[in-house]
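Database export, one record per block. Field names are fixed; values are copied verbatim from the stored entry.
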Amino acid sequence: MSTLVITGTGTEVGKTAVAAAVAATALAWGERVAVLKPAQTGVGPDEPGDAAEVARLAPGTTPRELARYPEPLAPATAARRVGEWGVPPKETADAVAELEADHDLVIVEGAGGLLVRLNAEGTTIADVAAALGAPLLLVARPDLGTLNHTALTAEAIRARGASCTGVVIGSWPNDPDLAMRCNVAELSTMADAPLLGALPADITRLPPPDFAATARASLAPELDGTWDAAEFARLHAPGPASPPCR
C-alpha cells in the first residue's frame, strides 16, 4: 500500500501512537514515510500536534497538517466556531498525491472516530479513504464495550465503500482485566478483519529507538512487525479458574 488511513472507534483510543508505530516499522525497512493530519483540533498555534508527535516518536517521518483549530472539538464544529468551512476533500486528496510522489508510505490520521465530520459538508475520514481507494486501519480500545464499538465502526466503513485492513489495540495495559482478555479473541470477528497488533499502554513514553523496537514487536507482519495474534491471544486467555466469557 502507498497510503494507509488510520481511524478509531472513538477519541483517545491511541490513533497517534499506532500511526507512529506503523511509521517506525516502515522506516526500519528503509521506506520513506509521511504522516498527514487533515484537521488538528485542541492545540494552540505553537503547540505540537499529532503529526509532530508521530515525527518525534518516529524520526525521519515527514509531518504535514492541513488545518488547525484551537478548541478541542470535532473538526467541523471547531471550524464553524472560527467562521471556517473546514477541510475540503480535494485539499486532502491533493496533499496525499503530493506526498505519495516522494514517499513510499503516506499515513493519514483522522480525528476522533470514523464518522466525525471534517467540514460543513459532512465529509468523514471514511469518505476520504473511499475517495483515495486507501484501506483503513481501525484502532480500538481493549476494555468492556469495545466489541460493540468495533463492530459498528467496521460496518460503517464497509457501508461507505471503504475497506478495513485490520484492527490494532491502541493501548494494552500491563494488568488486563477479564473483559480485555476475552475481547482479544473477539475483536477480529466483530470487525471481520484481522487483529494486527496491540501496543503497550506506555509505549509513547519510550525514547525513539526503544519505541521503534517495541512497535516492531507489537505489530503484525502485515504492518512490518513480528507480533503474532494467536500467540498473544494464548498468552492472555483467561485461566480455567476465571468466570466464563459471555
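Remark 1: The first strand starts at residue 3 and ends at 8.
Remark 2: DSSP finds nine helices and seven strands in the chain.
End of record.
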